[in-house]
Amino acid sequence: MWSSPRVQGLWPSVQLVTWVIRGGLSGDRTAVNLVQRLTGSTKTEAFRQVRLGEAMGEADAATHPVGLPPGTDGTGEPLIDPEGSVEVGPNPDAPTAGVIQLRPVPVVPWHEPLTRAVRDGVIRSEAVTIIMRGLGKPEERVSVEMLRAAAEEIIADAAGVHADDLGARARHLRDRIDPAGVQLRWDERYENRKWRFGRTEDGTKTAYVTFDEEGAAWMESIVGSAMRPRRGGPRMVDAEEAERAERLRLDSRSNDQIVYDILMGALKAGVQADPSTTFGSRQPGIRVVMTEESLNTRTPDAEGSEFLTGTGYLEDNKDGVPGSVIEKQICISGISPILMDTSGTILDVGREQRLHTPKQRVAMAVRDGGCRIAGCDCPPSMTEAHHINEWAAHEGRTDLADGILMCPFHHNYVHTKKCQVERIEGEYYMVHPPGVDGERVLIEMPSKSPLERERIRQRAIQAANDAADAATRATADARAEEAQGASGPAAGENSADPPLRIAGTG
Predict the structure, then answer these.
(1) Are residues 172 and 247 in the same domain?
(2) Which residues pair with 305 in a beta bridge?
(3) Judgement on whether residues 50 and 146 belong to the same structural domain of the protein
């Protein structure tokens, strides 16, 4: 069970946590304090080890139960038979001959698939607490079975995926199975918003900000739009944009100083500022992505008025957005519909120009969710559009199907290493130049978009259902033929007999 060297290295911490829980804290205030003192780790690492130890201990207790003292459930309390009439247990005068010692049925925790995946080496130990935090806890709206199924879904595609991406997938899954929770989270963070001014000991003015979801998205968009050249943003821009980007790269100020000046300039100028002088071609704003089905998901209130209950997500960080916020954004900026078929192909514009249009870039952001290289977490706003068919070499068109998003580093890698990107049945694959043996290996380029992953999941479910239906029909047909062959043709069932007619039909 503990064959993996990586997991074996974790076992002492799990044993330590188990001892802490069962044997006491030896004067330390919390289990985290004790683990930190004994291991010398940081408080964050100690907290992670305690959480992981608790999770693995709970799963082990349910899946590999050990013997309990006769007549007890491990808590010292006597057990009762199913009818509640006969006590068995620690009472020495209680009859024992012929009495079955009852044992509680172990309850397998919802996170057992995660701890099992650690033992099997599918995910690293640090990913468990991140995934558990993203999926949340069982409650009235979300059952244990729903969370267990979500954990299994994450593990199924977890190979080679880093912990942060697994955490993002966990948060998206929680939003999918608990759309009401998206609204509750936004409301809670909106109530907790604050902007507090302070002063250091030497008199320097400071500020402390706790953002709500929408305010944070706006701030990130403002800073991200202005700082893209310093953070490795797209390079394929017009001459004016290139000149501005070069000035920013050569700026002697630190990134923190530039961000401060950007925000102060925006506050001072307000709505009368010319935003293009500060932010360039990509203006700050919030892009919310959702399916047509979610857009049409509405629930009537007590007065009969319908309100939007479907959810979406922010384009860049994939955080869930509740229906109430989406309706407000629709009032402000309207809707830009993007149609795609079941294979994920969208908007075949086919313009004869080098650069993809802004609308095409928006559509690719919805489909790709960021850089398409596996393991890269670069958001859509920091990517460039790569032409699958080289413009000069293959007279490539700027259709959406022939373009995908890549961060500048991986875009440069694909060109310098002379890699090709191929689209096969709606999915994208990178192919390195053939090696000595001429082998060409397809490397999957997965979408980072929750919308695209959900489309793939639904397509897989539909394919499985179609296969099951076909198998059922084939079995039924085979049984019918077998039954007919065994009994022979029934009376009247030959070519000379007239067709049967239901009485009363003419």
Answers:
(1) no
(2) none
(3) yes
